[in-house]
Design a protein that fits this description.
The complex is a heterodimer.
Chain A: E1 4-10, H1 14-25, E2 31-34, H2 63-76, E3 80-82, E4 85-90, E5 95-100, E6 104-115, E7 119-121, H3 124-127, E8 137-139, H4 140-150, E9 152-153, E10 157-161, H5 165-176, E11 180-186, H6 195-202, E12 209-211, E13 213-219, E14 226-231, E15 244-247, E16 250-253, E17 257-259, H7 262-266, E18 291-293, H8 304-324, E19 334-338, E20 342-346, E21 349-350, E22 360-366, E23 374-380, E24 383-390, E25 399-403, H9 408-412, E26 417-423
Chain B: E1 15-21, H1 25-34, E2 41-44, E3 61-62, H2 73-82, H3 85-92, E4 96-97, E5 101-106, H4 111-124, E6 129-132, H5 133-139, E7 147-153, E8 157-159, H6 161-174, E9 178-180, E10 185-190, E11 200-205, E12 208-217, H7 223-229, E13 238-248, E14 258-260, E15 271-274, E16 280-283, E17 287-288, H8 299-312, E18 321-332, E19 348-350, E20 358-362, H9 368-385, H10 411-420, E21 427-429, E22 434-435, H11 436-443, H12 452-459, H13 472-483, E23 502-503
Parallel strand pairs in B: 1-2, 1-12, 2-9, 5-14, 12-20
Antiparallel strand pairs in B: 3-8, 4-8, 5-7, 6-7, 10-11, 11-12, 13-16, 13-17, 13-18, 14-15, 15-16, 19-20, 21-22
Helix pairs in contact in B: 1-6, 1-9, 2-9, 11-13
The chains are: A alpha/beta, B alpha+beta.
């Protein structure tokens, strides 16, 4: 291992793998991936269900197969990897401190860093579920690791709180393994994951989904014995008289994901309080020169293919920075803003000149579901920059709108790019 | 009533001088201080590990002693105990910071209560300093703008109560005390002669009988049941008082002080305090509950502590919450020994006259953590007064060596540690940077950590942002590997609290 690298990528999930490949292809000589697990692939390795690669490869692959395609290329291109290693600290000057049982403690210097640490799951405490604290309360991702990687069942009779994608996928997985999944409770009036997961994982297996329901109380001192479910009203207040005790030995939580940015903050990277991830431009450059970010560390995606795409863009930018240093933009970057019915927009800044080289995809989440044809539109003040139509807009499904070369003139003169999602 | 002395028993195989019942902070300190004498000591705990009751879930404050009623045992032992913590932390290597604490008056209406705090501080001989609201706001800019003044107690501090209890227990064990966990007290055994007062001869547990000349009741929430088995203080009752807390992520919210509100009639009120780990904790409320095991958190309770805390620190952010927990305090109805003091929630620390062989400790709620080392010394005084001749061990070692804590080390020290033992290079808990080396060291320590929570209490793994979601499968694997067990046997907290149900691809 060297002490100096052109590009160091932290994390080897889909975002990190893509970033490393793109950096190498763009001409960075010394590229290193640091991964905390013993193998490359990140959380994809425990996602043994299919649904990966439809956008990128036109094929429907399981997570490990999807990852392997990139891992093979990482090895073919001679990208270095540091496995079983945890990054302890990164600095604004792009010094990296990492520790590993295999290679010991190391201090590295990078010309550019790509943050690709992914996200973590919200826990019981963050949603403050009342009751006792027995064993048997796990996040869906922890259960997924146990079942798919370690080969152990976390329980036999299961209630899932939250209709996130991992929760629904685990409902099906645990059913395959002979567990009884009693039901999925969702506090919101709509699904928080993808509709296709609802159909393929819950509906097809007769697992009930109860919207506007939550867990009022966990029962059991040593191991979960039951949960008390309750309906909630529009203000998320439990409705008296709707309580139901559901006997179970396990409560799985699929109640949201949070970008993992403690390392980023050490280096002074500014975070968007809405996404929990860094403010980035269309090349995924953060506010700290030479530090880039890609994938779930920026905002939580629902399709891995889009994470890969973001990783490619971030890796390419990082390589350019490592080789040429900071670019001076002739036209100041244009801020994107969340307009009507939009929770946030990523990237936060768009350099118009980039449009002369490539398309820029704006990614966002809708606030309220619209089960009718919608416009996804980009305005500069009152002027329409671009728009596209969609059949519906749902909070569980990320929405994209693309700025193309033909939009260059309008974007160049814009003061802001305000995105809104409104009925047709 | 006493158990009637029965027929002469066969001499039990295990005979001790002293049996300590209960392994919270009080039992641990008593065990540790008694281990310096030439005594054969058995120390039992009904739970799977030490430090699983009131000592495990509290505000982690080493109190100055201004908040307790003058003239009570609580006041005397609080002040005496407080003075012992620097040496204890140095000898036992746990985290303790004598950072000082503030009792804060909000608005002019709390000035009277502040005067009462000052009067108690003076009566108890506790050093203090009254500061203006302006000065308080300067020292803690996040405090309420309504702050009208505060009492600063420079000797107050914060500690790691898990670390303190476990380190004291470990020191006791390395000095020869026999610890038996998962061993529950059931009853006393009495000497067969008919002399009055009756003499305790030992105890019956769910793991067999053990004989001893002395039994020390340090049973915390169950102290009343133990003393009633001896026929002592039939009127004494423990009323568990539940206190709920929330923990705020240090990366999201930071506060560098220990802030108490003016006390209410039943408790010290809802405080907002820093901890030795840098996370802020908020709580507790005080709710009397019937069940001694009911450490449940409730929606109402969490709302109550949050609203209480906002009075002190208005800018607290709910998004920073990373953990919620509840503890049970063993509140009692014991009068102060001094009949002139009208106080009925005092500690019980006595050798009762009606029987022989019992050292009776009860109602050790706050400031019990602070007072625990002083309570241990009082136990030794009582034993001596009762005629027990104590000989010091020539080789008693007061030092419990600290073990490496990866996150406390500089990068250079971390590099050196990883070079010596590569297991310290593998981080298992990323939020708190706890390494495999630290976990393995705790599994093989003198008081072995053999459950998930036992490792958590010793290393603070799983206490951060992800609450164990990342480390748990890895810790289960390590426990199984090091203990030679099947992962299916690994528990969260002992007993039936198994973490996993079965292997995949198997039928039930």
């Amino acid at each position: 291992m060297k002490e100096h690298y052109d590009v160091v990528v932290i994390g080897s999930g889909p975002g990190g793998l893509a970033a490393a490949l793109a950096a190498k292809r763009a001409g960075a000589d010394d590229v290193l991936i640091i991964e905390r697990d013993q193998e490359l692939g990140g959380i994809l390795l425990q996602c043994i269900h299919n649904g990966f690669g439809v956008e990128i490869f036109g094929e429907d692959l399981p997570g490990p197969s999807y990852a392997q395609r990139f891992i093979n290329e990482v090895h073919d291109l001679g990208i270095e990897t540091l496995l079983d290693a945890m990054v302890l600290e990164i600095t604004r000057e792009r010094t990296i401190y990492a520790t590993s049982a295999q290679t010991g403690f190391s201090k590295l210097q990078a010309k550019a860093i790509v943050l690709a640490m992914g996200c973590r799951e919200r826990t019981r405490a963050q949603i403050r579920i009342p009751g006792m604290r027995p064993s048997g309360v796990y996040t869906a991702g922890t259960a997924q690791r146990w079942v798919n990687v370690e080969g152990y069942m976390p329980g036999k009779q299961i209630v899932i709180l939250g209709s996130g994608d991992i929760g629904m996928i685990m409902a099906r997985r645990l059913t395959f393994e002979g567990a009884k999944v009693e039901r999925v409770l969702e506090v919101m009036p709509y699904l928080s994951g993808l509709s296709r997961n609802y159909v393929q994982c819950l509906l097809d297996f007769d697992i009930p989904l109860q919207l506007r329901h939550t867990v009022k109380r966990i029962i059991g001192r040593e191991r979960v014995e039951a949960v008390e479910a309750v309906a909630v009203d529009e203000q998320w207040i439990p409705v008296p008289g709707t309580e139901a005790i559901i006997p179970c030995d396990t409560l799985l939580l699929s109640v949201g994901l949070i970008p993992e940015n403690e390392l980023s903050q050490q280096a002074g990277v500014r975070l968007d309080p809405v996404t929990g991830g860094p403010f980035v431009d269309e090349g995924y450059h953060t506010n700290i020169p030479g530090i880039f970010a890609a994938g779930n560390v920026v905002h939580v995606y629902d399709l891995v293919d889009w994470v890969t795409e973001a990783g490619f863009a971030a890796g390419e930018s990082a390589a350019r920075y490592a080789m040429c240093g900071a670019e001076t933009a002739r036209i100041p970057p244009i801020p994107t803003t969340a307009g009507e019915n939009v929770r946030y927009v990523v990237p936060h800044l768009v350099n118009p000149e980039r449009l002369s080289q490539a398309e820029v995809r704006l990614q966002m989440r809708v606030r309220q579901p619209l089960e009718q044809p919608v416009w996804i539109q980009v305005h500069d003040r009152e002027t329409l920059v671009t728009r596209r139509a969609a059949r519906y807009a749902r909070p569980g499904e990320m929405v994209n709108v693309t700025l193309r070369e033909r939009d260059y003139d309008k974007v160049r003169q814009s003061k802001e790019l305000r995105v809104s999602i409104v009925p047709h | 009533m006493h158990e009637t002395p029965g027929s002469p028993r066969e001499p039990a195989p295990s005979t001790y001088d002293i049996i300590i019942v209960g392994a919270g902070i009080v039992g641990a300190m008593v065990a540790r201080y008694l281990s310096r004498y030439q005594l054969k000591i058995l120390w039992i705990e009904k739970e799977a590990d030490i430090c699983m009751g009131a000592s495990a879930a509290n505000s982690a404050i080493v109190h100055g002693g201004y908040a307790v009623e003058p003239g009570t045992l609580k006041a005397e032992l609080n002040v005496r105990g407080n003075a012992m913590w620097d040496q204890l932390a140095e000898e036992l290597h746990f985290s303790f910071e004598r950072c000082g604490t503030y009792a804060v008056a909000i608005g002019s209406e709390e000035q009277e209560a502040l005067r009462a705090e000052e009067a108690r501080a003076r009566a108890n001989g506790v050093p203090y300093q009254l500061i203006s609201g302006e000065e308080m706001r300067r020292r803690e800019p996040q405090i309420s703008p309504e702050t009208s003044g505060a009492l600063f107690c420079p000797v107050g501090g914060v500690c790691d109560p898990w670390g303190a209890t476990i380190a004291a227990g470990e020191n006791a064990v390395t000095n020869g005390v026999t610890l038996k966990r998962s061993t529950a007290f059931l009853d006393f055994i009495w000497e067969a002669d008919t002399n009055k007062p009756p003499q305790i001869a030992g105890i019956v547990t769910d793991r067999g009988e053990f004989r001893a000349r002395w039994v020390i009741n340090a049973a915390g929430l169950y102290a009343d049941e133990v003393m009633h088995r001896a026929g002592v203080r039939e009127e004494f009752t423990i009323t568990p008082r539940r206190g709920e807390y929330v923990v705020l992520d240090r990366n999201h919210f930071q506060l560098d002080n220990v802030l108490f509100p003016m006390p209410s009639r039943i408790s010290k009120g809802i405080l907002v305090t820093t901890t030795v780990h840098g996370n802020t904790i908020v709580g507790p409320n005080a709710e009397e509950v019937g069940d001694r095991e009911d450490a449940a958190v409730t929606t109402q309770g969490l709302e109550e502590i949050w609203e209480g805390a906002l009075k002190l620190v208005p800018n607290l952010d709910r998004h920073a919450i990373i953990a919620v927990f509840a503890g049970l305090r063993p509140g009692s109805n014991a009068p102060t020994p001094d009949p002139k003091i009208d106080y009925h929630k005092d500690f019980v620390i006595e050798i009762p006259e009606s029987i022989r062989g019992l050292v009776n400790l009860g109602g050790i709620e706050s400031p019990g953590l602070t007072a625990a080392p002083a309570i241990a010394l009082r136990v030794i005084e009582l034993l001596k007064q009762a005629g027990e001749v104590l000989y010091e061990k020539p080789n008693w070692n007061p030092i419990r060596p600290g073990r490496p804590v990866f996150r406390h080390l500089s990068h250079a020290e971390q590099a050196e540690l990883v070079r010596k033992d590569s297991r310290y290079g593998r981080v298992i808990c990323r939020c708190e940077a706890v390494t495999e080396g630290e976990i393995v060291a705790e599994i093989h320590a003198p008081v072995p950590a053999d459950t998930y929570d036992a490792i958590k209490r010793r290393t603070w793994l799983g206490t951060g942002r992800c609450q164990g979601a990342f480390d748990m499968p890895r810790v289960v694997e390590l426990l199984a590997q090091e203990l030679g067990l099947n992962p299916l046997e690994i528990t969260k907290r002992g007993g039936p609290s198994k973490l996993l149900a079965r292997r995949t691809k198997m039928r039930d």
